[in-house]
Amino acid sequence: MAIGTKVGAMKEKTKIVHAGRDPKSNHGAVNPPVYHASTILYPTYEDLKHPKTRVQYGRRGTPTVFALEDAIMALEGGAGCAIVPSGLNACTTALLAFLSAGDHLLMPDSAYGPTRNFCNTFLKRMGVETTFYDPTIGADIAALMTDQTKVVFVESPGSLTFEVQDIPAIADVAHANGAKVILDNTWASPLFFKPYEHGVDVSIQAATKYVVGHADTMLGTITANEECWPLVHAAHGQLGLCAGPDDIFLALRGLRTLDVRLKQHMKQGIELATWLGERDEVSHVLHPALPSHPQHDIWARDFLGASGLFSVVLNPVEEDALAAMLDGLELFGMGYSWGGFESLVVPSNPARYRTATTWDVPGRLLRFHAGLEDMDDLKADLDKGLARLKAAG
């Protein structure tokens, strides 16, 4: 592509706008067209035997798909990118690409719940053993490595509880023992964490979140370094995965504003977390960008920014008081996704998911996503909610 040949020299903000676009090849249209295709016709028998074009069958990609793949690689790095129908599917496909019966997997105890469930069900039936580990273990993960360990999975910060992992230290140990490192990079996105500069072999994202950015599309991406890309590409094809072209178009549209949106989410999230941390109803805040976070120094060393997702732990309250707070919120919706323009809150009990570590914090955890609404309005909505919490308690 004409623009793609120059994208490597561009600054980050410019890459976000231009990567994966080639107006000269599309009659001057700014955005790549949406190709709905299954069958691809070949003009001659020779072309059918020896295809000369990148487009060969709809499931293996069209110009719409390639545009998003190229754009993600321009931002995140890697030798290749595969697009899949959801973030969870990105996790599962990446794991299946490297694991076989008899293998051993190391998974952080703070991992995304559905990823954890996949390990405990599907991979277990396959004969893959999973050991959950303390996400703050760092180089001490060496004690958990075995001759059968093929993958060390990292998710930083962790779902719900936001532990920041020392990924370079973990990667050094994994590679010394012949294992690959797979990262869930959804929280930071390629804008705020560069996986291949920190020892990661494969990076996945729920593009549903910040890449799409508008709470209306399910999508996942997998990038991989040169050594690992052939296995990821093969697994993607063998599993028959493909995402709808209209969803991919929406991801391309959302991607163009990722820089401005994510920086605003970061600003909103830090301000909201700081404000909540000063409330009497709140025990403590879990946000890696705040100096009070236990792994703040690692975050400051490795990350280029923060997203709008964080948690707080309330002082102990009864369920009816929590319901009074949440049910009356006008701007914070209750829902299990995040990354869109809207603010969200969801209660959780991390103790239900832990096996390698103990979550014995007495108060209830609330995970917040700071959307793009006016901050004064968001604070006012929460102030009323916390007042209801107090009154019902």
TrEMBL record:
Pfam families linked to this entry: Cys_Met_Meta_PP (PF01053)
Cofactor: pyridoxal 5'-phosphate
Catalytic activity field: L,L-cystathionine + H2O = L-homocysteine + pyruvate + NH4(+)
GO molecular function: cysteine-S-conjugate beta-lyase activity; pyridoxal phosphate binding
PTM annotation (N6-(pyridoxal phosphate)lysine): residues: K209
Class of the enzyme per the UniProt entry, highest EC level: lyase
Source superkingdom: Bacteria
Swiss-Prot/TrEMBL keywords: Lyase, Pyridoxal phosphate
InterPro entries: Cys/Met-Metab_PyrdxlP-dep_enz, Cys_b_lyase_bac, PyrdxlP-dep_Trfase, PyrdxlP-dep_Trfase_major, PyrdxlP-dep_Trfase_small
GO biological process, any: transsulfuration
EC number(s) recorded for this UniProt protein: 4.4.1.8
Lyase among keywords: yes
Similarity field: Belongs to the trans-sulfuration enzymes family.
Protein name: Cystathionine beta-lyase
Source organism of this protein record: Candidatus Phaeomarinibacter ectocarpi
